[in-house]
Amino acid sequence: MSDKNNLSGIERIKTASDGLRGSIPESLLDELTGAIREDDTALIKFHGMYQQDDRDRREERAEKKLERLYTFMIRLRLAGGFIRGKKWIAVHEVAGANTTGVIKITTRQTLQLHGMIKSKIRPTIQSFNEAGLNSIATCGDINRNVTCTSHPGESPIHAQVFAYADKISQFLLPKTKAYYEIWLDEEKIADKTEEEDPLYQDRYLPRKFKIGIAIPPNNDVDIFTNDLGLVAIIENDELKGFNIAIGGGMSTTHGNATTYARLGTTIGFVDTEEKVMKAIYEIITVQRDFGNRSDRKLARIKYTLDRLGVDEYRAEVEKRCGFKLEPARPYVFTQRADRYGWLQNAQGVWFYTLFVENGCVLDDEKLALKTALLEVAKTGKVNFRFTSSQNMIICDVADADKAAVNAILERFKIIEHTEAASHLRKNAIACVALPTCPLALAEAQRYFPGLIAKIEPLVEKYQLQNEGIIMRMTGCPNGCGRSYAAEIGFVGTGAGRYNLHIGGDNEGERLNTLHKESLDEAEILAELDILFAAFKQERKDKENFGDFSYRKYVQKN
Ligand code: SRM
Ligand code: SF4
Asked: Is 431 considered catalytic here?
């Protein structure tokens, strides 16, 4: 547990915030600056927003002695990445009116809008609210958006498992009414006992907390990168319960050897819904009570777990639950990549998975994706799901409506765009990075598509285009694009330079390893040429790139 005298600054801000209110209302009224007060920047995260500035324009603004061009990014809460068609239309409209217009699908199956100026925050949240959408607790030291295997065709009982994402998401919301009061003009509640929060209390968690649900054989959600991962155990088309894995997390800090990426450790199995919820709750209370509140770099559950030891952590959870976790049950993951095109689920309903490069929904000179999706939504016959690889599924399409939806997709060349993209490109993820992310050391989403265009000929040179290699890039070591869980991972170290990691497996059950440090583009391409040539010549039967590079370069045999 943390030394009470050595709490991080954020701990003080949280406890003094009066239920996450701080001085946000005053900050909003200050017309002298586009920013909000410093303490409030930590608090608005709990309301689903980040203060950012356009890093491309910092120099120009500084030369003119202007303050930075402050704007806000807002992130929605969409459990399991599901949104009704009507709500998509609302997001489209809000994006156009109040933000840059680009709708960004994130690696945790939700949506972000960037570039909102301070005066547009309340109208944005109000419009979302009218549409039945909110951004509560999508950021901050609290449970975030709950992810779930998105492909409804994966299992006949997908809907049953999927319902858990929403239940867990609701169950772990904070009790404070600050969001409604500040952004939606609801009356200030007089009786503060209504806001008492036995889970989060007044200091919330030591750090962010992430939960995902996977439905084997698909590990599309990268379950072991979550603080808490549930793996659905399905026998004879019946949901028996969930294996629970804890302690996943991707972030490291360059030059800080005490930080590390880690995959979750499975601690047991629970069967009934009551037990699932209780186990989740108490795993979180143990992290709340034992997590590091002094050093935010070491505050995630992965560090608490390794400090206490897996057995001690599990014993504390069992003591608080009042029951024991059963031994984990067997299952197999065989895939992680999205399945593109039309597929039908067990109930005969259709869904179409389309490729959205880096999750950026916009209209450009090549593709009018945003307009196409609006037209599809306006048919009133579809809903949407987002995948953890930043793609989109048009779902719940009845047999009778499929032709009409397909015609729109064809007219806007969405099908052609999805089919034409290489496997390498479709399996790739890049995080946002520049210009909005304040932590970016290098480009990611603006650079990766161009780099992939230079890697594709190498893949073709060695006839590896059907290998389904999973390649990911992040602009810094925080791992928002989960680069450490890729077969080939690029991690930004500085402008135009990336660490190259290899040896992760295809299913997301083994992290990769640092292979070469701080490469520029020419060095990356030269190194990949060597790696692909070796793979082509020396691979064993059916060995994939991740397993080959692990054997040859990590195990060295
Ligand atoms: Fe992330 C911070 C974007 C998924 C680990 N992440 C950030 C911020 C908010 C930068 C900041 O703190 O000011 C980035 C905003 C950029 C922007 O302009 O939009 C940012 N993270 C993203 C998104 C949008 C990447 C994307 O391109 O999709 C993802 C939003 C997910 C969501 O909908 O909630 C996103 N971030 C992740 C993931 C992947 C995941 O959860 O599956 C990780 C690695 C897993 C993990 O948490 O360990 C991740 N983000 C981080 C970290 C490192 C946390 C740590 O343990 O130290 C930070 C930095 C921090 O929290 O201090 C961070
Ligand atoms: Fe920003 Fe780093 Fe996350 Fe990329 S990985 S979005 S650069 S914090």
From this structure: yes
Give the β-pairing of 429-430 and 392-397: unpaired
In angstroms, the CA 35 to CA 71 distance is 8
For residue range 227-253, list pLDDT tens digits in order: 999 999 999 989 999 999 999 999 999
What distances in angstroms separate CA 449 from CA 162, 427, 454, 456, one per listed residue? 32, 12, 9, 11
Report in angstroms the alpha-carbon separations of 260 from 105, 208, 247. Answer: 26, 16, 11
Residue 472's pLDDT is 98
Atom of ligand 1 nearest to the CA of 75: 33
Distance from the Cα of residue 338 to its chain's centroid = 15
Helix residue ranges per DSSP H, 431-542: 448-461, 521-538
The atom of ligand 1 lying closest to the CA of 440 is 10
Spell out where 295-442 has E strands.
341-344, 350-354, 360-361, 383-386, 392-397, 429-430
Residue 431 Cα to ligand 2 midpoint, Å, equals 6
> Which pLDDT score is estimated for 3?
60
Return the H-helix or E-strand segment holding 488. strand 488-494
Tell me which of 108, 426, 480, 539 is the catalytic residue. 480
Cβ neighbors of 357 (< 8 A, separation 6 or more) are 421, 425, 449
HSE of 400, CA atoms in CB hemisphere, 13 A: 1
Residue located nearest, by CA, to atom 59 of ligand 1: 478
From the options 3.30.565.10, 2.120.10.30, 1.10.760.10, 3.30.413.10, give the CATH code of 426-554. Answer: 3.30.413.10
Atom 20, ligand 1: residue with shortest CA distance = 480
User: Whose CA is closest to 252, among 87, 499, 534?
Assistant: 499
> Looking at ligand 2, which residue's alpha carbon is closest to its atom 3?
480
Evaluate: CB of 480 within 6 angstroms of ligand 1.
yes
Please tell me if the CB atom of residue 437 comes closer than 6 angstroms to any atom of ligand 2: yes
CA angle 537, 541, 547 (to 5 degrees): 80
Mutation to probe ligand 1, out of 219, 480, 482, 484 (largest number of atoms < 8 A from CB): 480
Task: Answer whether CATH 3.30.413.10 is correct for domain 1-9+141-336.
Answer: yes
Q: Which of 14, 144, 300, 385 is catalytic?
A: 144
Cα within 13 Å of Cα(245), Cβ side: 22
H or E stretch covering 370? helix 369-378
- Catalytic-residue membership of 139: no
The fold of the 49-135+338-421 domain, in CATH, is Sulfite Reductase Hemoprotein; domain 2 (3.90.480)
- Domain extents for the chain? 1-9+141-336, 49-135+338-421, 426-554
The ligand 1 atom at the shortest distance from the C-alpha of residue 429 is 27
User: Which mutation among 252, 300, 478 tests ligand 1's pocket best, with the greatest number of atoms within 8 A of CB?
Assistant: 478
Q: What is the pLDDT of residue 188?
A: 80
CA 192 – ligand 2 centroid, Å? 37
Same fold, 1-9+141-336 and 49-135+338-421: no
Quick count: other Cβ atoms within 10 Å of Cβ 102? 16
Q: What pLDDT does residue 2 have?
A: 52
Low-confidence ranges of the chain (pLDDT < 50): none
